[in-house]
Design a protein that fits this description.
By secondary structure, the chain is an alpha+beta fold. It is about 20% helix and about 40% strand. The protein has helices at about 20, 55, 65-70, 80-85, 160-175, 235-240; strands at about 15-20, 30-35, 40-45, 60-65, 90, 100, 110-115, 120-125, 130-135, 135-140, 145-150, 180-185, 190-200, 205-215, 220-225, 245.
Amino acid sequence: MREFSVENFPNIGAVMCSKMIADENYKPMFIFREKPLNNNDSGWRLFSGLESDEYSENANNFGIYNPKTILEIDNSISSLLLYKGVGTVWERKPNTDWEEVFDYPLEDDFMVEHQLTENWTLPINNLFNRIKEEDGLMYTTNDKTMRLNIWNYKGRTKEEILKEKKKEISERNLENEVLKKYELDQGNSIKVGYHIKEYDSQKDISYNLICGFCIVDNQVLQTFFYFDNEKDLEWALHTWKMIAYK
């Protein structure tokens, strides 16, 4: 994964940081990324790990900073700040590597159900930022992203559409190796999709892509799931399966 120097670190928004780090030059030892408060907020919250409860309860002991200010103190966190998503929590001890924490509670970490249309619903974690795009919707935490579009197939049954989509998937395998194909019959809807890997030249990494079609009579909800970490395969498949047509 590409490392960034302080000079060429891209703009990700501001970080909230303990003044033990910003003023006293202690290194960050506990960091987490909340759902951003606004477009100028990265969501990152940085602590030295030495803050007492009393210290942390005093807002004057924290400030809003350009990430480059903190990277001047400890540039080793540059890849974490840039690549790790909303909802992730990280800690380390002196002279050890960062480890992800899975049991630290975040305020916005709960499930919500989004009414996409009159019939389509999507249960998704509230940590995801919802962005309206020109031809659909995007939900993202930065390291996990889902895009979806709804296409009309007036006069076509779900069985007819399924046959067409299976043909598309077979042809897709000629362009880029399909790692796995999926098919799920949920009664009033049929879901079919595939898993491939693609390459991000900017990050210099390969990433996972799952393309899924949720098929009903006359309509298809198409989803694209993008994720770097293999452990997020479960998230992608579960989210896809939970999309419902009522």
